[in-house]
Amino acid sequence: MSEKKKLKVATTSLAGCFGCHMSFLDIDERLFTLLEHIEFDRSPLTDIKHVSPDCDIGIIEGGLCNAENVHVLREFRQNCKILIAIGACAINGGLPAQRNHLSLAAILEEVYHTSPGLTNGMIPNDPELPLPLDQVHPIHEVVKIDYFIPGCPPSADAIWKVLTDLLAGREPELGHGLMHYD
Amino acid sequence: MSQTLTLDGKSIPFNDGETIIQAATRAGVFIPHLCYHPEFKPHGSCKLCTVKVNGRQTASCTMRAAVGMVVESDTEEINAERRALTQMLFVEGNHFCPSCEKSGQCQLQATAYHLGMMSPHYDHFFPNRAVDASHPDFLLDFNRCILCSLCVRASRDVDGKNVFALSGRGIDTHLIVNARSGKLADTNFAEADKAAQVCPVGVILPKRRGFAVPIGERKYDKQPIDEIVAEGK
Prior knowledge:
The complex is a heterodimer of chains A (about 180) and B (about 230).
Chain A: E1 7-13, H1 19-25, H2 30-35, E2 38-40, E3 55-61, E4 64-66, H3 67-79, E5 80-86, H4 88-92, H5 104-114, E6 132-137, E7 147-149, H6 156-167
Chain B: E1 4-7, E2 10-13, H1 20-26, E3 50-53, E4 56-59, E5 70-72, H2 76-92, H3 107-114, E6 131-132, E7 138-141, H4 150-158, E8 164-167, E9 174-177, E10 204-206, H5 219-222, H6 225-230
Parallel strand pairs in B: 1-5
Antiparallel strand pairs in B: 1-2, 3-4, 3-5, 6-7, 7-10, 8-9
């Protein structure tokens, strides 16, 4: 019997905390079953730097808080057949988006100049650093997202359900107990 | 109760003067709703309880039941529209569930779960709304207000205090506090008020009671909203 071609899966964390990646690893032994069907492409788990052009599934954690986030998101969209937003931050901006009612200048000023305990603070301005966006945005506002796994983070069971649904060719569905925004 | 209407193919009895949602709830059928509350006069504004009566859309909280009505509620078409309305409520406010004390007991969230809302779909407004923490016992977080007017009705009709009101029109509609300063501390709002208990989302919250029940063990974590309402809990 010829072996079925494994699906390529890429993952990244943009303006996220890697909590969703931790929850993904929480599928524990099921990772072995998963690895019979997939191989990891660009991901913090492999340290591959760019998404292969024939990637099947891209999983994005975190929203968009700077120019690099947008760049990485576009690379994922360009190279992945299916893009999945994972977690509250990718879906509605999450915790980082709670800065959205403040001006970026005021935030930088407070963080680097006026916070208690700071002396001679300066706002970082190295050309290597990506520029922050004026507001944090969820990823569906910039590229088309095919599936969403809500939660902060989504449980390992919720992630497993969506991935196994997709691998089986079913429309992913989270029922009561797996569907959580918190 | 010999009179009946047909709801999703099921015969539902009703009393004279009852609305469709009242008859449905008594018969154990859940119709999603946010501004409707069985103890108050209907407001008919959230439109989540929209059903099709003899092929035409109407709010089931304001429409009186009538003999022989054919009502459709739990259909793919109507639920898709309810989901879209719910998504609009999410993007118009600042609904960050992970850091909200109401998460797990929030009717907006539970309804979104029920409707299978996987994402907010639309672009977020990220409005700038200040929090009112002036009152010694209660906090008002306007970021989560969905303009259901339940606190307005409770304070006016039950408490006889008129603490809250909806001000402005259309997209500018917002909840205000009836005090010269606009602050809750400058009203006679009190913990025993009905208005302190009816908020379906996380706007009116008691202070110093955060996370007494852990996330994951709250009302709608344990049982979905359709079952809770259908069982009359």
